[in-house]
Amino acid sequence: MRLSGKIYVVVTMVILIISVIQETRSARILMAQPIGTRSHKNFFMAIAENLVQRNHTVTIVTGHHSSHQHPNIREVVVLDGNIFNSFSSLFNTSVERMTWELYSSFITSCNQALSVKTVQDLFKEEFDLVMMYIYMTECFLTFVHKLKIPFIYVCPNMVLGGYTDLAGTPFFPSLMPYPRDNLEYPLTFGGRMAGTLRYVLEAAFMEWFYLPGTCPFMSFLALKQAGLPVVGPSPDEPVSGLLPHHCLPQPLSPASPLFRCSECG
């Protein structure tokens, strides 16, 4: 009987220790997906649900409402950041026109999402990790700068254009066509040259035009000039020490890995 009682005590202590260890390993994670389709959000939610099963808490900034709520997943919905609402019909819009309008709207949309009061209030909280949608959400790197925490890029599909170098997944036009071109098989020499030229031009556009305008420094200047509330770091604070090259880590370092879905595109 004495041995049985000791076993119960040992088992209870082991369960208690495991519970405490599990609790201490939990993290507060901020997911930033203000721009993207509902299918992109479904990809993020699948990751979030698996994280909360491991005792983490997740706050997701998104442009879409969920049909059901999870007790450990808090959603901050920013409808102003959903750029796809500006298109009457995606199927009746040419690829060239849609691409140009999307690029011209991304910086404004990201800043609008960042300026929402519920998002600004997140600067007052503590997080251990930021998981960011890799495309066009650079203004949310402000959380990384302000909170001094690591971040992970998340991509639900193929990494395109200027982001391939950033993600450490180089594009090989000799093996695959440029994603925004019509698929032609087998690949011809001319098709490969055209794809390579398109890739180089887009990478140069992202490197020297788009990305420099999406720094956290520029985002907060835009917020301040628009008279919107700024709760994060002051524009006077140096950003270059954290994000030295156009405010983005390039090439990708192990401290900011990429997570993508190999079956999504």
UniProtKB/TrEMBL annotation:
Top-level taxonomic group: Eukaryota
InterPro entries for this protein: UDP-glycosyltransferase (IPR050271)
Keywords for the protein's UniProt record, in alphabetical order: Glycosyltransferase, Transferase
Gene Ontology MF: a single term: UDP-glycosyltransferase activity
SUPFAM superfamilies: UDP-Glycosyltransferase/glycogen phosphorylase (SSF53756)
PANTHER family for the chain: EG:EG0003.4 PROTEIN-RELATED, FI06409P-RELATED
Protein family membership: Belongs to the UDP-glycosyltransferase family.
The protein, known as: Uncharacterized protein
Lineage: Eukaryota, Metazoa, Ecdysozoa, Arthropoda, Crustacea
